[in-house]
Amino acid sequence: MGFRFPIRRPGLRRLVCRGLLALGLALAAELPCWAGSSLSAWRIGRDGSLELRTSPGIQLQAFFEEGRNGLGPRVWVDLPGPPTRTRVVPAGGAVREVRIGKPDYGTTRLVLEFQPGTRLDPRQLRLVGTARDRWRMELTGVPAGSLLSVGEGDMEAPTAIAMPRWSPRSFGSDYANSARSTSRQPLNPEGLPLVPRGRFRVVIDPGHGGPDPGAVGINGLRETDVVLDVGLQVAQLLQARGVTVSMTRTSEVDVDLPPRVNLANSLGANLFVSIHANALSMDRPDVNGVETFFFEGGSSRDLAVIIQDQLMAVSPGTPDRGARPGRFYVIRRTTMPSVLTEMGFVTGRIDAPRLADPSFRRRLAQAVASGILAYLNR
Ligand SMILES: [Zn+2]
Predict the structure, then answer these.
(1) Is the pLDDT assigned to residue 178 strictly greater than 60?
(2) Given the DSSP bridges, would you call strands 338-345 and 271-278 parallel, antiparallel or unpaired?
(3) Kindly report the CA angle at 335 between 329 and 339, in degrees rounded to 5?
């Protein structure tokens, strides 16, 4: 093909996507005869986004380089596995061309070379995992309408459902048995409210991730682990009811707050639910409870009330801190009904052991999912 990719040099800004470390290792065993690229499809959309479909659970990295010497800026993504063939795809508009290259034997590199003079702000660029096999980057800074739609492969193929097989402790217990100990019988999977299939899109946002563990509580219980486990289960339950679910993260990756909001806003999601666990200091185990925040009244408040009720139904004995107004970034800046739920205190004497218990997390996921479905069903 004639072009060579430069070796990555120090000083180039690394954009994203450290994460997936443990996940990537676990999945390597699933793909013993690794052959060919993990890149299944890609697309640049007129809406100013780059989307990728990959093998599920892979590790990838994205980079940015300023334009110079008459060349435009470049964004590139390295994925495991060599491409079937290197190639140049003419793009048009603000993107001069897209190249699929092989910087070394085991890597596929997707390069977007922009027209000279194109202004991109690398601080705004994030490649966000929206499912185990989907990634999305908002090409923030590229003028609206200056991109042409171009891509290869089938982006519409079914999404790999996030099955956290790398976390079997999350699924090891018997939900039906453990549920009997609670005061109100929570909904089992079959009992979840029905909604019209294919009509709704919900964004689930497990808080924190990657180098940011969120709150850390009793026995080292980490908020990030709790909320990711619950979030993945909520997604599965909703998908089983025909709801399209996008997740702001599906693994231990670091995702800033703006991309979480941008994902929901650009997808035109019907709902946004951010999942967190609370914390106070370790010497306040007396503080426990569940609370769900909304920014403005109306729909978001209704959603918060429903989810809070469902969570309290499976959390007997812990204080009901209520559905309350809050000013968190992700609920302030999303344009659809949105809530942020704090499912208990990782520092609390009542809540911490429960949040550490896989069967309880399963019940929490049931509660959040049933609240979402009940709201959609109104
Ligand atoms: Zn949090």
Answers:
(1) no
(2) parallel
(3) 55
The residues pairing with 41 across neighbouring beta strands, listed in sequence order, are 53
Q: Are 318 and 353 in contact (CB under 8 A)?
A: no
Cα(279) to centroid of ligand 1, in Å? 8
Distance 259 CA to ligand 1 centre (A): 16
Residue 377 DSSP symbol: T
pLDDT computed for residue 147 by the predictor: 83
Query: Which of the residues are catalytic?
Result: 342
pLDDT at 71: 85
Quote the tokens at residue 84.
């079937």
> What was the pLDDT predicted at 76?
87
pLDDT at 165 over 70: no
- 1 falls in which pLDDT band (50, 70, 90)? very low
Of the chain, the percentage scoring pLDDT greater than 70 comes to: 82
Span from the CA of 55 to the centroid of ligand 1 (angstroms): 29
The domain in which residue 339 lies consists of 168-376
The CATH number for 224's domain is 3.40.630.40
Ligand 1 centroid from CA 42, angstroms = 32
Judge whether 257 and 312 are in contact, CB under 8 Å: no
Q: How far is the CA of 274 from the centre of ligand 1 (A)?
A: 9
Span from the CA of 206 to the centroid of ligand 1 (angstroms) = 9
Closest Cα to residue 217, out of 89, 354, 323, 80? 354
pLDDT-derived band of residue 189, with 50, 70 and 90 as boundaries?
low
Whether the full predicted model's pTM is greater than 0.70, yes or no, is no
Domain count, the chain: 2
Query: What integer is the mean pLDDT of 64-75?
Result: 84
**How would you list the strands of the sheet with 338-345, edge to edge?**
244-247, 201-206, 271-278, 338-345, 290-294, 320-325
Do 29 and 91 have their domain in common?
Answer: yes
Q: Which residues pair with 325 in a beta bridge?
A: 294
Residues 147 and 175 in one domain: no
